[in-house]
Amino acid sequence: MERNELRPILREMFPRDRTYLLPALHFLHGEFGYLPGWALQIVSWHLRVPASEVYGAATSYTELRLQHPGEHLVRVCSGLSCWHSGGRDLMRLLSKRLGPAAPDACDSEEGASRKISLEEVPCGYLCPMAPAVEVDGRWYGRVSARDVSILVDRLV
């Protein structure tokens, strides 16, 4: 979908009312796999919602992302149980292994060239199985450094 095609689609699918903000964001995320900055601006104009509020909603939900994801997605739970049971160490290990995160620019496509995207998720709701790691939508519990290395090796 091109930039000039989005506004007519939004007009057709979403009435110009702020109550459609989350449905519009979920629609965009489904279309692009992330929320491009230019698309957030168009949603702001269409729904007559301040851009800061659109950005706030987009960054409040862990299932929405502002960066183009890599081919594979690895998420480490940073909930209290996971973080203190080794999740922090797993995140450090993965950060070193996978390199720096993609640029934090909404319009950047640079993240698209990354093979593996690494993210923290505030809670994976697997507290009894801490630490938990999600790889391409599948959760793994009681993950060790060795386990996470094996999981990442399969992706490379």
Overview of the structural elements:
The chain has 156 residues and is an alpha+beta fold. It has two domains: 3-60, Arc Repressor Mutant, subunit A (Orthogonal Bundle), CATH 1.10.10; 72-155, Glutaredoxin. 47% of the residues lie in helices and 12% in strands. The protein has six helices and four strands, in the order H-H-H-H-E-H-E-E-E-H. The protein has a four-stranded mixed sheet, covered by helices on one side. Helix 1 packs parallel to helix 3 (37-47) and helix 3 packs across helix 4. Residues 102-113 have low confidence and may be disordered.
How many domains comprise the coordinates?
2
CATH architecture of the largest domain: 3-Layer(aba) Sandwich
The CATH class of the largest domain: Alpha Beta
Pattern of helices and strands? HHHHEHEEEH
> What count of helical segments does DSSP give?
6
Q: Please give the number of β-strands.
A: 4
User: Assembly state here?
Assistant: single chain
Considering DSSP H and I runs of 4 or more, what fraction of the residues is helical?
A: 40-55%
> What is the structural class?
alpha+beta
CATH superfamily of the largest domain: Glutaredoxin
* Unreliable spans: 102-113
Strand content: 5-15%
